[in-house]
Amino acid sequence: MRKSLGFSASRLARIAPWYQARFDSFSQSDGLVPGAVVPIARGGKLAYLQAIGFQDRAKTVPMKTNSIFWIASMSKPVASVAAMILVDDGKLDVEAPVSQYLPELGDMRVAFQTTDPATGESDYGLGLPRPPKRPMTVRDLLRHTSGLIYPELDFAYPERGLADASADLGIRTIHGLYGLRAVFRRDRTLADFVSSLAGLPLAHEPGEVHEYGWSIDVLSRVVEVASGQPFDQFLQSRIFEPLHMVDTGFYVPKEKLDRLVDSPMPERPPIWDVTTPPKLFSGGGGLVSTASDYLRFCQMPLNGGELDGVRVLSPQAVNQMTANALPSGVSIFGEDEVGARAGTTFGLGFAIRADPVQSWIPGAVGSLSWAGLWGTYFWIDPAEQLIGLQMVQATPGSKGRQAVLYSGINRLVYGALTIPESSAVPPAVPVILSTEALADYAGTYDFGATVSSRDRQGLADGKTGWLGIGNFVAMEQEGLRINKPNLGSSPAAKAGVMAGDLITEIDGAPLKGLSLADVLAKLRGPANTTIKMKIVHRGQGSASDLSVVRATRRVNAVQLQLRVEHGKLIAEATGAWPILEFEKDKAAPFVATSSNELTADDEDHSRIAFVRDAAGKVSGLILNPGPWEQHAAKIALGPNF
What we know:
It is a single chain. This protein is α+β, with helices and mostly antiparallel strands. Helix content is 20%, strand content 21%. Strand 18 (472-476) and strand 19 form a beta hairpin. Helix 3 (75-89) runs parallel beside helix 8 and helix 3 crosses helix 9 (231-240). The model is unreliable at 152-179 and 459-471 (pLDDT under 50).
């Protein structure tokens, strides 16, 4: 662990115990192999690498840093890079119809859809498929707008019928509706698979809908045809060997089987049995790899396409892959990871964090990421020159997978970044404040979901933001506009607030001219207390009175509690996550340096400046004022009251 890379060693050390606590909490029946490997790199150097727990379900074989995992859909970025290598070589055109390389797909049709006139919802019917408006292109494959979706997933259980497997997995079965199925088996080739797709209907018009599916497996076959090589050989010669990815491939050789992490299921379904060589080289989900190998793969695009002096991709190809590839008219269907509610768009092979207000995955705008079916996950943050990896094996949909995926590793890593020394403020001369003055600052302060100044979740630019009660809002000249289409079961929705409504007053105070931060401070407060508003409902010309009862914040909140003990102000993190040096059950004393600022004797020399409302009451705080500042709203009084 290297403090020189801008991390706090003590805060990075929180990572392993966090995982171990989850391994201790979940049994085998929860579908989680009790082990993980977590590497973190910054600036091209390794900052953290830890093997945690065990690589077998029986907890007899300790996890190793070079343990081998099935990475499932983390294969897709690798296959996408393979395609872009051929673009660099002049052998592949991303704008060309797929049929230029795979003529057997030239006559694919679009599935017949019916629309309910009452609801406007569409579903698949038994009518004849129609010709597409335009052919699918190689670009469509790279960005999942081809119309090729995952309609079956019965390939995981080839000994069972389509209806049984699909019903178990809750998958739409438009192919089954037409009495057809894809041949996707480990003992058949990519050519066999593509030929079996030729008679199947597309779920969507090419280019109109982003929906996850078969696209990258078809792309893998395109790579074979364009390169004249089997897909596994192309990956080996153009990616794995140049990047020294020594343990990555489509199966685990016998001499390495002692490093293969167990399946989270009692046995591996046939298509996912990576212990023997396959005939199917699935770029969509077939690869196995190690933490160190995949870290080297991630470093390559972060370096602009090269690693250790070896160029794999041109900078132009990297730029294409890491820029938004979904036009504004493209719909997002069937995903939690991509779309407006996730604040994420898609490039040519990677998800891209685009909107920090709506995103639930921490990181800078422009960060790249993707995950695998069994819980492997990576992200690349160009702004921080940071790469993070989580290598675990967990059953899809299980409690164990939900416990580790997307919930902890990002927040723990960003929370471990220190404030640059060049921005640190020298310690000021302490001053003495009375107990009464300190008590004025006591209370609980809410940072939303943001653990560090590098993780800009929620408030992004002072114009839009996250209320904490589940509503997205935006400041306008006359007040606060509610702009989220579906408010769910939030207190605002229960009180009658709808998308499009305008809040003009809160507790008798007009909102005109206020900043978003000021308005959010007014909205936040102790649970079960009442806010009185004046609101102009959508389509109405005059304001009406409305009362909303505050509810408890979501469990992922980052909160800091300040209290007075023995004449000093003590700080402790009380939310779901630690923040900088502050943790649960670890009180950190502050020393006053002025009537409104306090400093902690910690690694960051953390400073707090308090914010007051128009009435002079403390309404929030700023942690480390300056370039790396974080804002919090006061939501409860301290225990002294």
